[in-house]
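User: Predict the structure for this protein chain, please.
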Amino acid sequence: MQRFIYEQNVAHFQKLLTEATDSALRRTLEGLLRSARRDLAMLESAEFGANGSPLEVRRRRNGDADGIRQQFQPEFEASSHPYMLLDPAPGLRIVGINDAYALATFTNREDVVGRSLFEIFPDNTDDPLADGVSNLYASLRTVAKTGQAHGMAIQRYDIRDPDGQFGERHWQPINSPIHDRDGVLIFLLHHVEDVTADVLSTPGRTQASPRADHPPT
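Assistant: Here is the predicted structure, written as structure tokens:
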């Protein structure tokens, strides 16, 4: 029932947004629509993971997962680029992060491994137009469905600093599937590059300026 309500909210706000002409009303509706999409993404990620529906959930073999992880773990750990490994099962739990990812996101392995992705990286509650959660979840679902890597548009996704305060961050994310030899999805590999400095240095764009994100992919 809750999922049905969230889906109806998304459809309702989308319809109202297409009909609205007043700029203030449109901004309010955009915030409501993004909030509804976030609620739906949070619910579906908890219930279905990246698969998106119970019909798409596939049984994975733990033995294969352990063996596959051992194969790429050295390169994963040693890379200077930020990487996070996710379990595509319900909950989208974090399997691991490398040092570069921990540094970029003010996190550490002990605090994040085994916990749900969007519990650790929620949207900025002070930004009514935040859409990081819904856009990232949509990308992960695309990867799970197609079996192909998916490059997202530059995404604003604010990160909490060591004091728990959100700071503006912009990222270039690429999400990739990791399959076993039988083609079963075992892991999702999330790679990001911090492009905040490039975005904020765009002429006419300052940290205090309105959001100028790319549209959802």
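Helices lie at 2-19, 23-48, 62-78, 99-105, 109-112, 117-120, 132-146, 196-200.
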